[in-house]
Amino acid sequence: MGWTGPSLRGWQREALDAYLGSNSGDFLTVATPGAGKTTFALRVAHELLTAGVITRVIVVVPTEHLKVQWADNAHKCGIALDPSTKNADGLENPSDYKGAVLTYAQVASTPDLHRLGCGQRPTLVILDEIHHAGDEKAWGAAVQTAFGPARRRLAMSGTPFRSDNNPIPFVQYGEDGKSQADYSYGYGRAIRDGVCRQVDFHFYDGEMKWQGSDHVTSSANLSAELQRSDASAALETALDPGTGWMRKLLGHADNALRQLRTEVPKAGGLVIAYRGSQARAYAQMLFEITGERPTVVLSEDGPEANAGIEAFAQSTARWLVAVRMVSEGVDVPRLAVGVYATQTKTEMFFRQAVGRFVRRKKDEEHPALIFAPAIAPLRVLAAQVEKEIQHELKLEEEEFEKEQGEESNGQQTFELFARIPIAASEPTFDRAIHGGEEYTPEEHEYAQRILQQYSFPSSALPSLRQMVREQLGVPQARVTIETPAPAKDANAGTPAFRLRKLKRDEVSRLARRISIVAGLEHAVVQGRINEAMGVRKRADASIKQLETGAAFAHRWLKEIT
Predict the structure, then answer these.
(1) d(CA 19, CA 31)
(2) Which candidate, 261, 150, 196, places its Cα nearest to that of 31?
(3) 495-543, pLDDT tens digit by residue?
(4) Distance (Å) of CA 32 to CA 238, 296, 302, 486
(5) Confidence of residue 151 (pLDDT cuts 50, 70, 90)
(6) Minimum mean pLDDT among 103-107, 150-154, 276-280, 402-406: which range?
């Protein structure tokens, strides 16, 4: 049979050659979300069917929605797969289909049935987002039982994963417990190849107030360096619909989407919520902001949710609101603006969430925009994603788990305590992260003013920010927009308290950049700068000592970039 699917991208041809050259029964491919793993896997199936190595293809996916999506894509490639078969129906009809699409839960329910199918006909099993086989211990055992007799097994994931407490069958692990891929295609290379869009992260700050279980009222800014429990409380307060912080953030995100739709009329936005009640509240806020009722997805497995996702993908509607995230592999290419409004912060979850926005259509040059609270864990994860772009690193070369606490089933969330969110200030722009660089509010605002003054398209914003930085210079980046470029004697006439604050802010900003670029804890970087200044903490430093610290930080940053 002839291949009727799309032409292969460069990485897909490389991966196909690697697979065919391996002649192995098991093969793990890790490719960044949006790169096209489905097409690659179906081409592998086509090659094996044509060569007579197999006569049957089984695809295993995390959710019901993906069954139909895989079957549709397989049909376009000339391979008929049954997405509707149920365990009670037995195996798929071989006269109509070359195989079937199942869920991991379906396999776990009756593994012996699917083992029988692999024994009857030479079978290729495609295990999509295989890390889900480790969600429950029974699932991994069922996958082992069901597909042990398969002729070939092709496992795929959007990001490297760890064994945790439930090692996944048919996967090799290194001494560090991390999966070892036979072929990897990272986000950095996907950007370079033009396969994926780059992401522009916009982080917003604000002062949060909450009451703890001891009835003591506390407050903190989202961007502050906080203990885990305080960070959790601050974020929970920001995400609470009653404080009003999210309404303002959604307004900023919708304004960005509105501007983008002047260039890309069908562009859509996704709000990733933490709870169903919050999702419904956010949807109501968006309705009040836009006058258009968003699509709300509360369960990715239910038929109504599946229909909602499909309808949104085919429409020109503005917003989709989902609890957790639209599942891995769900293809809605028009998603271009996201709001990360969940407390979940594992590296895998964050990367999969970002992956919902990076799918790139031909000739589209605009970056994806993701709006998020300015808490340190999310900023660190965003910086890591951007660092891969800057250095073209592959995903499996990076191990980035800087936050304390243990993971549970691969899903780590902020701990929830008995506390009551009280109030939140309005969200204020804290920083943008793009292309491995961090941009200040002043640089961002200056670039936006140029954008509006000359009616440039919104996709030009990253380039304008870089131009602003080059004109102002990094040390002078935090200036008031109305202030002209400083002369040599820039500090003359500046009150000491303002000058001291400017210097402290400069040292703090440089410390954050060094932390991102060098991959060091912020406390470690600040400690070394304090040593150079001759103080125990930055708050004790004089203006002259702060100038010494800034000079030291500039030299350090220059050495590592």
Answers:
(1) 14
(2) 196
(3) 666 677 788 888 888 887 887 777 787 788 888 999 999 988 887 788 8
(4) 30, 26, 27, 44
(5) very high
(6) 402-406
Measure the CA–CA gap between 220 and 223, rounded to whole angstroms. Answer: 9
Phi/psi at 104 (5° precision): -60, -40
Q: Identify the CA nearest to 435 among candidates 454, 458, 456, 461.
A: 461
Per-residue pLDDT reduced to its tens digit, 385-423? 776 665 443 333 333 333 333 333 444 444 444 567 767
For the CA atoms of 59, 385, 519, 249, what is the dihedral angle to 10 degrees? -120
SS3 of the chain: helix, strand, coil, percent, to 5: 45, 20, 35
pLDDT in tens, 62-95: 888 789 889 999 999 999 999 989 999 899 989 8
Task: Answer for the pair 128, 66: CB distance below 8 angstroms, yes or no.
Answer: yes
Do residues 111 and 145 make contact, with C-beta atoms less than 8 angstroms apart? yes
Check residue 458 and give its pLDDT: 76
Q: Give pairs for 92-101: CB < 8 Å, separation 24+.
A: 94/56, 94/121, 98/49, 98/55, 98/56, 98/57, 99/56, 99/57, 99/58, 99/59, 99/123, 100/58, 100/59, 101/58, 101/59, 101/60, 101/61, 101/66, 101/67, 101/68, 101/70, 101/71, 101/74
Q: Which two tokens stand for residue 235?
A: 């974020």
The token pair that represents 166 in the structure block: 């439930």
DSSP codes joined into one string, 484-522? PPP-TTTTTT--HHHHHHHHHHHHHHHHHHHHHHHT--H
> What percent of the chain lies above the pLDDT cut of 90?
40
Q: Which two tokens stand for residue 328?
A: 């891995």
Residue with tokens 């995400």: 239
Question: H helices of 103-154, where?
Answer: 104-109, 111-120, 137-147
Cα–Cα distance, 430 to 506 (Å, whole number) = 14
Give me the half-sphere count of Cα atoms (radius 13 Å) on the Cβ side of residue 51: 12
Burial class (CB in 10 A: 0-12, 13-18, 19+), 340: buried
Burial of 412 (0-12, 13-18, 19+ CB in 10 A): buried
